[in-house]
Amino acid sequence: MADEGILKGKRVLIVDDEPDILETLEDLLDMCLIDKAPSFETARKFLDKGSYDVAVLDIMGVRGYELLRIATQRGIPVLMLTARSGEEDKQRGMEAGANLYLPK
């Protein structure tokens, strides 16, 4: 990865209810310090006890918009990575404070 130096050592929270997505992102971001959460409850525990440079959040299955609210209140930049790729969903995510909204 070309920007590996920029990401090296960054703390990243990845939240998705699909194990293959968690594993793929962990592999892609192997230069980062990763916490993976397959559920809202696990993600909430991570957010309550740690600080992150960025959070990558799914929407469906993990109450992503609620996690987005929590993360933005804590000043954590958020990338929404979701199968919900409609313009309405994107607008809602961006208005709620997501820094980037990408479809899966």
Summarize it.
With 104 residues, this protein is α/β, with parallel strands linked by helices.
Oligomer: single chain
Number of strands: 5
Instruction: Give the averaged pLDDT, no decimals.
Output: 91
Order of helices and strands: HEHEHEHEHE
Return Rg in Å.
13 Å
What is the 3D form? globular
Helix content: 40-55%
Summarize the main sheet. 5 strands, parallel
**How far is it from the N-terminal to the C-terminal residue, by CA?**
19 Å
> Which structural class do the helices and strands define?
alpha/beta
Structure description:
The chain is α/β, with parallel strands linked by helices and 104 residues long. It contains five helices and five strands. It has a five-stranded parallel sheet, with helices on both faces. Helix 2 links the parallel strand 1 and strand 2. Helix 3 runs parallel beside helix 4. The longest helix is centred in the first third of the chain and has 10 residues. The radius of gyration is 13 Å and the shape is globular. The two termini are 19 Å apart. 28% of the residues are buried.
